[in-house]
Design goal:
mainly alpha
């Protein structure tokens, strides 16, 4: 019985670690996509940021 409970506890810890890695990876991807998306610029800011147009 102790071996069964120990095995179940170990499996729960491994699954928890796996879920934590997935959550951190998802948060990192979300932050990268937020950082790469351009901010909303008004017309004058667009003219300043895009010279030669």
């Amino acid at each position: 019985m102790d071996m069964l409970l120990g095995g179940l506890t170990f499996a729960a810890i491994i699954l928890g670690q796996f879920a934590a890695v997935i959550a951190v990876h998802g948060e990192r991807k979300r932050r990268e996509s937020d950082a790469q998306s351009p901010t909303h610029l008004d017309d004058r800011a667009k003219l300043i940021s895009q010279p030669g147009i």
